[in-house]
Amino acid sequence: MEEESVTIRARRQMTLPRKVCEALGIGPGDRLVLEVSDGVLIARPRQAAALDALRELQRAFADSGVTEKELLESGRQIRDELFREKYPELARKHGI
To answer: What is the reported pLDDT for 24?
Structure first.
């Protein structure tokens, strides 16, 4: 895509050119995540940022060596402990 330029108006607003919006797959009402890195403005669609974060979490999980089964079991144990603390009578009644 060729370079596009925009003007920052008095209220710090700008209009993104149609080609830029089409290239990013965004339209009216969509949200962008803005980042400044080494003096460069980076704008990404919010959905893309969320997917990047999910991929990073998946990589961290894979690198941790913890299995999905271990993670689920740990979550169950923590949930049961919190339930016992908050609802002791119900926990006893249901054998938790």
So the answer is: 86
